[in-house]
Structures are given as C-alpha cells and as structure tokens.
Design goal:
Blueprint: E1 9-11, E2 21-23, H1 26-35, E3 43-47, E4 53-62, E5 65-75, E6 84-87, H2 92-104, E7 109-114, H3 125-139, E8 146-147, E9 151-152, H4 153-158, E10 165-169, H5 179-183, E11 190-194, H6 202-210, E12 214-217, H7 226-240
Parallel strand pairs: 1-3, 6-7, 6-11, 7-8, 7-9, 10-11, 10-12
Antiparallel strand pairs: 2-5, 3-4, 4-5
Length: about 240
C-alpha cells in the first residue's frame, strides 16, 4: 500500500495503538503549531517503525503542549529492507544529503566506514539519525533504517558474514556497465559499499577484490561524486536485483 503524501507524516518514539495518547516533543510542537499552524482536531499520519502507520488527531491540553490521539491504522507495518549501505563519510552538508537519499532509495541499515582516503567524519550520531527520520517522514517509509557507529574498513571486512554479499563501486574497474555483473548475483542478502571522495586506495581495492563475498561493479564512463555514485548504485541495484523489480 502506497503512502498518503497529502497528509503530514510524523515519527514518534513511542508505542502506537488504539486508546493510546502521546505528547509530542517541544521540537514537534513548534513545527506543528508554529510552522504548519495546525489547530486542535487537525490530523496527521504517525509511525514509529514498529506498529504501522496511524492517523492521529491533535489535541491541545495546554497552550504549550500537543497530544496525539490515535484514530485508526492506515497502513500495516511492512518487513524492513535488508539492504545494507556502507559508506565513507563526506563533509557535513553532503553527508546529510547522502544519508537522506540512501533512505529514500531503500537502504535498511546504514554503516559509516572509515577508509584510507576518507575526508569526512561522523561528528554527531544524533544528527545522522535525525536525517534518517526526516527522510522516512518525507518519503513514506515505515521501517526506519538502523544506524551503526563508524568502523574501519579493515575491521568491518575481518568480521563480515560470508552470507551477505558486498557490492562495491570500483572506480578503477575497466568496465562501464554494472547490469550484467549485478544480474549474475544470486544472493538475496546484500550490502552496497561506496568509497570516499578520494576513492579507495590500491591496497583496499586489492583486498576487496580478493574476498569471495565481494563483487566489484563499474558505474559508467564518467567519474561520479561519492554522493552521486551512491544514488546511481542504489538505483541500479534496486532495478536489477532489489525491490524495484
């Protein structure tokens, strides 16, 4: 069932169900009351990543508080996406964009990866999670992707489960078309690895290509920025072996 994009969507970190009430945060109060200028009795769509999507009615117990009354379920909770997205952090503004687009493209789990040429860093896990939630609110996703703390690429590969295939965007690949390579992948548990703005080091590329659970793909004849490469790779994966089929 597709999302209703005509109604405002709101994520809450609380149980949702009949006969329950929930008081929104001060930030949500400001957004609903002062930015959107919603009044008593207005309705929004509410989700928490566990209990499906519900229609919620706003009530104002005081001038500075908004409570939600859950009226009815509008969509059941779907299975979460199992596509993992492994990425080298970018500079702050582009990192925000990268995270939001990965969520929109169907990533179910986000893992920052520190590579040899990485230029950005994760300065705030709270900001990272906030970008994930904002993207989920805007694009109709009900299963909010998980976010892990950064790991070094070597440490990640040392403990990687062999039954989840890593697809990594190799800027040094001699090919141009990723579709034949992706079409040959039989595994259903997948992860996409996109490197930093400076690319992977030769040592990293050699190790990745030597591992039996890793598949390298090209992304066409042009050099793409890291955030563009992420969106392009997620699109071709979803179209060939993902949930766009």
């Amino acid at each position: 069932m597709r999302a209703n994009f005509r109604m405002q969507r709101l994520f809450i970190d609380a149980p949702i169900g009949p006969a329950r009430r929930h008081e929104v945060t001060s930030e949500q109060f400001n957004y609903l009351a002062n930015v959107l200028r919603m009044e008593d009795g207005a309705e929004v769509l509410v989700f928490n990543g566990r209990d499906g999507e519900w229609k919620g009615k706003l009530t104002f117990p005081t001038r500075k508080k908004i409570a939600l009354e859950f009226v009815e379920e509008t969509r059941p909770q779907p299975p979460a996406s199992d596509l993992h997205y492994l990425f080298a952090p970018l500079k702050v503004g582009r990192l925000d964009y990268l995270v939001q687009k990965a969520v929109e493209m169907g990533a179910g789990f986000l893992q920052p990866v520190m590579t040899q040429h990485v230029q950005g860093k994760i300065t705030s896990m709270e900001r990272l999670q906030a970008n994930v939630i904002e993207a989920a609110e805007q694009c109709g996703i009900l299963s909010v992707p998980g976010v892990a703390t950064p790991k070094k690429l070597g440490d990640l590969l040392d403990t990687w489960p062999a039954d989840r295939r890593i697809i990594f965007c190799d800027e040094g690949d001699e090919g141009q078309n990723p579709l034949p390579v992706l079409s040959g992948i039989k595994e259903t548990r997948l992860a996409l690895l996109v490197g930093p703005e400076g690319g992977f080091s030769e040592e990293e590329r050699e190790r990745l290509r030597s591992l039996p659970f890793v598949t390298a793909i090209p992304l066409g004849p042009r050099i793409l920025r890291a955030d563009t490469a992420a969106v392009a790779a997620l699109a071709v994966i979803q179209a060939t072996i993902g949930d766009w089929r």
